[in-house]
Design goal:
Blueprint lengths: L6 H5 L46 H14 L15 H9 L3 H8 E4 L5 E9 L1 E5 L8 E4 L6 E4 L11 E7 L2 E3 L4 H5 L9 E5 L2 H10 L1 E5 L5 E9 L7 H7 L10 H10 L4 H6 L5 E6 L17 E3 L10 E8 L3 E11 L9 E8 L1 H9 L1 E11 H8 L2
Parallel strand pairs: 2-15, 3-9, 12-14
Antiparallel strand pairs: 1-16, 2-16, 3-8, 4-8, 5-6, 6-7, 9-10, 10-11, 12-15, 13-14, 13-16
Helix pairs in contact: 2-3
Length: 386
């Protein structure tokens, strides 16, 4: 996965895993925060063969093709598909020339929880950076430490499938990995783990939350970095911390307002940053990017992050929602990523791309959505037979 939590959700921990109110949105615009329901069984899913699927685009078809190698071998945590279900649509995708006909012919629309959902957005930041420490570049991005232990809990208990525990060994005991405050104080310094350095520590913090980004180097070239792991600590939204402390007004929490506060309060800023104990570790990415949970580059305005406990990663989705500026969206998109705050049926995060427009749209995206999962016909037929 890219590893970030959604940009708006990073600002207020009032929903999903960290917040119910995206940045800049009024309280009524966000979904409520009940505990995430258990994944639905196949028998609970309405098969909706009469559902109108929006025409697929060439970009959606290309994104689906990129997912096929992983789709053919990965285990679907939602239980809706098995690897063999994707053989026919992937074979058809390789030869398809008409995207609309391809999606209509190879998939059956299925709704989970009547398709009612919520859509936020994320983007790929670009900030000033350097491969080495230099005057004006002092905020480090760290590589994955060699002593970080990552345990798949599903190997120990089936009901923990999909969950991971991260820490380090102290003798024979697995103990928590250093939190952000300890890392800021130098817990990883001098170990050769610095991958790159940012000019602005606050922009670096938000790039870390996104989980990937571009560093604009002093010579004008671009270095791309992406999620490699995380220190295992729970995410805390600093926007909520600032709100609770009365430093920002209710309804006035956004990425830009948080950045402005941090820059205006350099003495208080380190404690606020340290209030989020979660730290992301990075690797350099070459070629297309950023890389999503499917192991392939995500596509702007086509790829979405979803909860794999409900939606098969790699599956096409018919998405109807509203983009910032009251622009309607009705499109086929591909579930190719996951996110720490993207939990529950039909909770999706739209990848907006890179640049100022993507940043603005991702920051403002917060709207109800209608989500229809497009399942391979073999999977849908199996559901109908139950």
């Amino acid at each position: 996965m890219i590893g970030r939590v959604h940009l708006g959700l990073c600002c207020l921990a009032l929903a999903a895993c960290t917040t119910t109110q995206p940045a800049g949105a009024p309280p009524s615009a966000a979904p409520a925060n009940p505990p995430a329901p258990a994944p639905l069984h196949a028998r609970d899913l309405p098969i909706a063969p009469g559902t109108t699927t929006p025409p697929g685009t060439d970009a959606a078809l290309a994104a689906f093709r990129r997912s096929c190698p992983s789709l053919r071998k990965r285990e679907d945590r939602s239980g809706l598909t098995i690897a063999g279900d994707w053989t026919a649509p992937c074979a058809a995708a390789a030869a398809a020339t008409d995207a609309g006909e391809f999606f209509a012919a190879n998939f059956t629309p299925v709704t989970i929880a009547a398709g009612n959902g919520f859509a936020t957005g994320y983007f790929e930041p670009e900030i000033a950076g350097s491969r080495t420490a230099a005057p004006g570049f002092a905020a480090p991005f760290y590589r994955r430490p060699p002593n970080l232990v990552e345990a798949d809990l599903g190997a120990f208990a089936p009901d923990l499938k999909g969950r991971k525990l991260r820490g380090r060994l102290a003798g024979t005991a697995l103990v928590p990995y250093p939190a952000r405050a300890e890392i800021m104080a130098g817990a990883l310094a001098g170990k050769g783990l610095e991958l790159a350095f940012a000019a602005d520590p606050y922009e670096a913090f938000f790039l870390e939350i996104q989980g990937s980004g571009r560093l604009r180097l002093p010579d004008g070239s671009i270095m791309r970095i992406g999620y490699d792991s995380q220190n295992g600590r729970g995410y805390v939204a600093i926007g909520k911390v600032l709100l609770d402390q009365g430093e920002l007004p209710k309804g006035g929490v956004s990425m830009e307002s948080i950045l402005a506060w941090l820059r205006a309060n350099p003495a208080k800023a380190p404690a606020i940053l340290a209030a989020n104990p979660s730290v992301v570790f990075f690797r350099e990415i070459t070629g297309d990017g950023p890389i999503g949970a499917m192991g392939v580059a995500v596509t702007p305005r086509i790829s979405v992050a979803a909860d794999p406990a409900f939606i098969p990663l790699g599956a096409p989705l018919a998405v109807a929602t509203t983009l910032p500026g009251n622009r309607p969206l009705n499109a086929v998109m591909i579930a190719q990523d996951t996110g720490g705050a993207i939990k529950g049926a039909n909770r999706i995060d739209l990848f907006m791309g890179a640049g100022p427009e993507a940043r603005a749209d991702a920051s403002a995206q917060a709207a109800a959505a209608q989500v229809t999962v497009l399942l391979p016909r073999a999977a849908a037929a199996r559901l109908l037979a139950r």
